[in-house]
Design brief:
The complex is a heterodimer of chains A (about 475) and B (about 220). Chain A has about 475 residues and is an alpha+beta fold. Chain A is about 30% helix and about 30% strand. Chain A folds into 4 domains: about 35 residues, no CATH class; about 150 residues, no CATH class; about 100 residues, DNA polymerase, Y-family, little finger domain (Dna Ligase, domain 1, 2-Layer Sandwich); about 90 residues, no CATH class. The termini of chain A are far apart. In chain B, about 25% of the residues lie in helices and about 25% in strands. Chain B is built from 7 helices and 8 strands, in the order H-E-H-H-E-H-E-H-E-H-E-E-E-E-H. Chain B has an 8-stranded mixed β-sheet, sandwiched between helices. Chain B is globular and about 50 Å long. Classes of the chains: A alpha+beta (about 475), B alpha/beta (about 220).
Chain lengths: ~475, ~220
Amino acid sequence: MLAADTTAQAAGLCVGMPVSKAQALMPGLVIQGADPTADMAALERLALWALQHFAPIAAPDPPDGIVIDSIGTDHLHGGETTMLTTLVGRLAGAGLHARAAIADNWGAAHALARFAEKPCFISKPGNAAADVAPLPITALRFVPELVASLHVLGFECVGELLAQPRAPLTLRFGPELGRRLDQAAGRIAEPIKPIRPKELIEVRRDFAEPIGAAETIARFIGKLAGQLCDALELKGLGARQLDLICHRVDNRAQAVRVGTGQPLRDVKRVTRLLSDKIETIDPGFGIEVMTLAASIAEPLNPKQTVSSLVEEPQPDVSDLIDLLVNRVGEKNLYRIAPVASDVPERSVRHVPALAPETGAEWPGHWPRPSRLFGHPEPIEIIALLPDHPPIFFTWRGVRRRVKRADGPERIYGEWWKRDPELAAVRDYFQIEDEAGERFWVFRAGDGEDPRTGSQRWFLHGIFG
Amino acid sequence: MPFGLAEVDSRLPGGGLALGALHEVAGGDNDAIDGAAATLFTAGIAARTKGKVLWCITRPDLFAPALSQVGLKSNRVIYLEGGDEKTVLACCEEGLRHGGLGAVVAEVARLPMSVSRRLQLSAEGSGTIGIALRRWCRQTGVSDFGQPTAAVTRWHISALPSTPLPVPGVGRPRWLVELIRCRAGESAAFELESCDDTGHLGLPADLVHRPGQAEDGRCSASV
């Protein structure tokens, strides 16, 4: 038995149990030989998926995990907690049960992901040694013989090992023990080599002298972009996502990731997108190696542009949109498209900025306010029931007299969306006060039947 | 870009709104916080340009069907939600510098002089019209509008009672459009009717035609 999931463990099976015992515990067990090469290939595919969707530096951590360097990319996913929960959630959606942890270094993260109590553990920066201390010593990636010898001596958890003076331990067990302890405590760097499948296009530049100045970095970004675009052109591909990894002298890496809406092969645009992010690169004591990879590439075929003799070409704003999306995030740049719904707050939805244009518009019979409040504000009114607009209303403590009004516009609830909306209606009125300010108010209900709403009045928007 | 109204265009240098320039629009007293009339005024101007419009916001309370009703169709506007004003102004500058957009609108509260100068230079370089729509969170910040900026014109839009109708109802809204500052021109104030569905403002009928027609005794209150 090489691995057991929660159902198996509930039935009493565990790792290392002989097959005959497992068959005795669970009759009807299907037996298949283990295939470590296929497992490793699957792990590499998982690491490649993590590379494309989560961070530029991801690698398999055999036998059963992947390691991701999230420096500079956790804000793209909404923070460390959100990133971990998204990762675990997406793996769960694919049918894989996963545990994750974020820590300062590979050793501590490896240990916490496997042995911490919470399935998603976030260690505070600088706290790696303290978080690793209560874990058992098998968490430190020692060979089994070393673990057995340490158990014989009475060491059970990592904290005890960390507290011991280093010299006698190294004398007895060799340098491996000290290396793993230092990796877990963060004293030695352990660089992650990102997974690079053979068909991934990557260009690399080594520097004889480490560089650090922003202009130098920008210059070499331009040269790398030129090489990458040539390589992409040979294969007829365009890049949708670019990863620039700068390996520093102290063995740490800084990564920059940019995405584009359409496959891209233009040197100037690639350079512009990457140079926009130079401030996020911290060169430390110097950068030795810069690599630029197109982690997601799609076929890019030449297109015929419209000649200006035939019709006026529309100016292309996709490069501006790529630049702005990489600055503010994909969710914050959008167009608004109509939704076929009467309820005002549901009649708009966001679509990506480069989505194809449909030309659909909202029906324009009734006027709509230019500012709509997210939550309608309750107001106090005096009005004749059932379908007269208000005469006076009080909003935010100011009482106003209504001089003119239009309405009611009756909007029915969408009974197919939510049950409480089966009979609900809203009667909207456009009202104007004496000073000329125009408001959009509604009554939740038709004024007669209590089933249609609470009959309370709200202010939903302001007209221009 | 002319407004189409001789009365307004005669006050602006060049006979209309300068295209490659930065303009500022703000709402009147109560409108300073919500900026509803100023939004429609800006949308009317943007609707009459050609090409896409980048609208940079910090607060997502704009209701797009209203913009569509003044002629700014939904597939022309790209909204950018920046977390803070610095991002909004930086992205606005990128949009102006690009040159492929028809108009760039930024909803900001504070517009420092140096930033406005950079926006003005980017707009001049590309010929795109830039509009800074000023709206504040609290009434106390409104005095900030008095600070000088590098905008070519400054407008103040306040709501006025709408056009009187012979029947109960709200007519076409009217605005008090004040041109507070105009480079190489004088300030002026106009009472205009709000944008129609192509984005053009209108002159109130009782200013166009002499007020000889007798008003009906009926007052247009709603009861």
